[in-house]
Amino acid sequence: MKRSVSFLVTVALMELASFLASAFDPSPLQDICVGINDPKNAVFVNGKFCKDPNLTVAEDFFYQGLKNPGDTQNLFGSNVTLVTIEQFPGLNTLGISMVRVDYAPYGVNTPHIHPRAAEIFTVVEGTLLAGFVTSNPEHRLFSKVLNKGDVFAFPQGLMHFQYNIGHTNAVAIAALSSQFPGVITIANTTFGSNPPINPDILAKAFQLDKKVVQYLQVRFQ
Asked: Strand, helix or coil at 109?
């Protein structure tokens, strides 16, 4: 009898452990999502509402947005064409998205973070310097010169960048592990927030003169 009880207790504990190991909260698909009791006042769920499967057609899973080069005539010499849930509703619930990045000679995709996705990055044309930096306290830089056909991975949530070190235009395609990966551009977020961060805080953080911080805030507004 004792063996039988012991066996049942062991099985119950194993099932509980399995349940706890597999239970998790869904990953957020936008920056903020405050809970609300009245669904009539709700704007959206964590992601998008689903289309009736009986009304779904092949075109819902088809997108033609990556064949056209992006305009790189800007201060950074780069352009990112997004293919997320916002542009391609067929990605809903699939946990994937893509981007095309175009670079003018010496153009840069400035340091940024994807808070909700890891990224696998492939060079289609040109030569790029790509890299990422690990979190505190090591701040290790991993970087590599990439040529046509080379692939580089950027871990989720780590700051990364690409820079066209060639004399010609460059193109890359990247896949990300979220239908809405989000992007936090370091410079824009830091110096272009709305309302602006107190310049005294940024002056201490970056060890800069307060006037330099205020100048940068004006530039990024």
From this structure: strand
Q: Where do we find the tokens 């999502």? A: 33
Name the residue with tokens 């153009």: 107
- All residues at 6 or more sequence positions from 2 whose CB lies less than 8 Å from its CB, including other chains: none
Cα→Cα distances 206→23, 50, 209, Å: 41, 45, 9
- Read off the pLDDT of residues 98-125 as tens digits, 9 standing for 90 and up: 999 999 999 999 999 999 999 999 999 9
Instruction: For residue 89, give the nearest of 61, 65, 56, 53 by alpha carbon.
Output: 61
Name every residue whose Cβ is closer than 8 Å to that of residue 134 and which is 6 or more positions away in sequence.
140, 142, 158
Mention every residue, 6+ apart, whose C-beta is less than 8 A from residue 178: 27, 29, 95, 96, 97, 114, 116, 117
Token pair 């009539």: residue: 40
Cα–Cα distance measured from residue 58 to residue 13, given in angstroms and rounded to the nearest whole number: 46
Q: Would you put residue 18 in left (φ > 0), alpha (ψ -120 to 50) or beta?
A: alpha
Q: Where are the beta strands (DSSP E) in 66-113?
A: 78-83, 97-103, 108-113
pTM score > 0.85 for this model?
Answer: no
